[in-house]
Amino acid sequence: MAIASDEPLRGDLPNWRIAGSYDILLDADPYGMAWEWLRRTNAYRSAWNNLTHASTAPPASAFGLERYENPSLPVPAARPIWSSAVYTDVLRAHVSDPFAARRDRVDLRLLSRFVSVAISDDEVEHLLLSDGLHSIRIDVVVGTLIGCPASLTYLLHGLSGLRGPMGALKRLANLVHAEKFEPAASTSSAKRRRWISELRVADATLAGADQQTIAKALFGPAISARRWRSESAEYRRRTQRLVHQAGALLMRPLDRWLQSDHSHVRLFKG
């Protein structure tokens, strides 16, 4: 059941008062973090609720997606298929040889637990390989991999945009070989915890919590019970910065995580 976009406390979100509720995100890739922010926005939830009324729901591409994903699904249950407009690592490929040696073929049957697919009107297969925390995106522009193991020819152009696809190729080779995802490239624990703090603060504000209540949850006994504005001034400033940043990310949830070409889209209304 879709959740109303104006609901102040959303039951599909973690309990923001408990820091450990967010620990799974310490292992999520940037696309997982982007999803966690997008699914919290009023604009996306309203669009999801309006899907039964085609005239009022914008296309999924308005949110950088190939298809809508249920906003009640968190990481790692969700499987958002990001479009190449925002996902910098998409591999574009065409099927070249269904009779190639097994070591050179991509066989989705062996990877079925990771596979999601959206097929667009132009018959491009938008494949997502994901365990919920790590992901690889492939757009098969000619041919099909559905039920047909084959080797692929990868379409790479220029130099400036090679880093993402080359990294994705390496991850794909490792996945096909090991049938599991390798840990993502390391991001500092401190940076990840700050990202999670911002998300936690966003959930607190969506639940209607005031800044003092948020500060107590974040910093515990360091927050003065009676004169927090003066006796806990530094923590108050830190809380204010987190609230400000969380609000900015709710208004533009894709900016930090995904390709800047999509950063002009303003998703949050309210």
Structure description:
The chain is α+β, with helices and mostly antiparallel strands. Helices cover 31% and strands 11% of the residues. The chain has 2 domains: 8-81 and 187-270, no CATH class; 91-178, no CATH class. The protein has a 5-stranded mixed sheet with strand order 2-3-4-1-5. It starts with 29 loop residues before the first helix and ends in a 19-residue tail after the last helix. Residues 1-9 and 260-270 have low confidence and may be disordered.
Defining key terms:
2 domains, disordered N terminus, disordered C terminus
Can you summarize this structure?
The protein has 270 residues and is α+β, with helices and mostly antiparallel strands. The protein has helices at 30-38, 42-49, 163-178, 189-206, 211-219, 228-231, 233-251; strands at residues 91-97, 115-119, 125-130, 135-142, 151-154.
Number of domains: 2
Q: Name the helix and strand elements from N-terminus to C-terminus, one letter apiece.
A: HHEEEEEHHHHH
What is the helical fraction, as a range of percent?
25-40%
**General form:** elongated
Q: In angstroms, what is the radius of gyration?
A: 21 Å
- The overall average pLDDT, rounded, is 88
Topology at a glance:
Layout: H1 30-38, H2 42-49, E1 91-97, E2 115-119, E3 125-130, E4 135-142, E5 151-154, H3 163-178, H4 189-206, H5 211-219, H6 228-231, H7 233-251
Parallel strand pairs: 1-4
Antiparallel strand pairs: 1-5, 2-3, 3-4
